[in-house]
Amino acid sequence: MKTAARGRFSSPLWRDRALAASALSEIARLAPSAAAKTGGRVNFMEVCGTHTMAIAASGMRGLLPKELRMLSGPGCPVCVTSQGDIDRVLALAAIPGIIITTFGDMLKVKGSKGLDLHSARERGADVRVVYSPLDAVALAAAEPEREVVFIGVGFETTAPVIGGAVVRAKKLGLKNFSSTAFFKLVPPALELLLSDPENKIHGFMLPGHVSAIIGTGPYRFVAEKYRVPCVVTGFEPLDILAGINMLLKQVISGKPRVEDEYFRAVRQDGNPAALKLMREVFSVSAASWRAIGAVKNTGLVFSGAYASFDAVKRFKIKYAEAPEPKGCLCGKILLGKALPSDCRLFGKACTPSNAVGPCMVSSEGACAAWVKYGG
User: Which residue from 114, 125, 173, 229 puts its CA 20 to 30 A from 189's CA?
Assistant: First the structure.
């Protein structure tokens, strides 16, 4: 057993190979029974991009039984940002005198005209990569004669961090700091997926990071209304195998619920301080999703008390719908309707060094994971 396990779990990410072998054996035992309940194949969606990368990096996908398929969902912040919002980011970068601050993942996401922040910087735009929005606030304080814009994208995980930076900027009296608020909310995203009549998702591996903020309560509707099993899962490969086993048992029992495998970090009521901060700085609003369009009550905008920190309002950057890159299947991949290998551009015209779509650009994108570690 130990010799076989050592060969199958060669990645150092597997902390306990014997335990991994036992968990995988249990998955192999349960998967046929679960598949019989779902019509021949069980489709579980990992909502979080970090799960996608962990599954790929550990080689897990090749270890799972044929009856089970893991789909990558809309959990990559850069990937779900609409083409129209990327164009707004580039419009901000084109304004003379502005300093654009951003996380590194945003640098190579192309807008509708084939440009990105990296090429904008080559053309003279002042674009700087920061490790925290607080770095952008510090920059604004250090250079009061310049406008500093932080590009805020993401989910409930990053919203409180950016909200905290805005609160700090307000306390410092900074008039030259602003941010975008291109945020998406995970529970409404799940509702969006499940309300699609073509949906074939039989269980959700829920994101540990987001759930640490919002808790487990907001997901109850998935099990109660849609009868779909849910497990909040950690990011170790062993966490993921445990989460898959929990989902399979729910499918077989026919009793869907929300379970918490990541109990060491996630509580039912989430993080009250972070939730309070989000309610103070932001309000729920419509959001524009890549390949989906505008959807009511799925995003956040700055609340009235912090509206002056909204960069797109401050600089009057209007939103315009923009087409997806020609031939790119990123939108379908985010909806669980396609795999990276289904895209004719994948690994050919679209590579990490010359990415067409954001699923190849982001470090959490499904296409980037498949290219780096294999599908």
Answer: 114
Parts of the chain belonging to CATH 3.40.50.11740: 78-185+270-314
pLDDT value at residue 264:
94
Please state, in angstroms and rounded to a whole number, the distance separating the CA atoms of residues 144 and 147.
Answer: 8
User: Could you tell me the CA-to-CA distances from 350 to 29, 186, 234, 309 in Å, in that order?
Assistant: 38, 28, 31, 36
Under a CB-based contact definition with an 8 Å cutoff, are residues 337 and 366 in contact?
Answer: no
Q: Give CA–CA dist 324/333, Å, rounded.
A: 13
58-92: burial string, b at 16+ Cβ within 10 Å, e else? bbbbebbbebbbbbbbbbbbbbbbbbbbbbbbbbb
Q: How is residue 305 annotated by DSSP?
A: G
Q: How far apart are CA 156 and CA 266, in angstroms?
A: 14
- The structure tokens listed for 34 are 């679960």
Q: What are phi and psi of 266, to 5 degrees?
A: -115, 135
pLDDT at 6 over 80: no
For 17, list phi and psi in degrees, rounded to 5: -65, -35
Rounded Cα–Cα distance for residues 38 and 68 (Å): 11
> Does the pLDDT at position 236 exceed 80?
yes
Q: What angle do CA 19, 20, 24 make, to 5 degrees?
A: 120
In CATH terms, the superfamily for domain 78-185+270-314 is: HypD, alpha/beta domain 2 (3.40.50.11740)
DSSP class of residue 236 equals: S
Dump the DSSP string for 40-81.
Answer: S-EEEEE-SHHHHHHHHHTTGGGGS-TTEEEEE-S--HHHHB
Greatest pairwise CA separation for the chain in angstroms: 66
Where would I find the beta strands (DSSP E) of the chain? 42-46, 68-72, 98-102, 126-129, 147-150, 153-154, 177-179, 182-184, 203-207, 230-233, 258-260, 282-289, 293-302
- Type of residue found at 306: Y
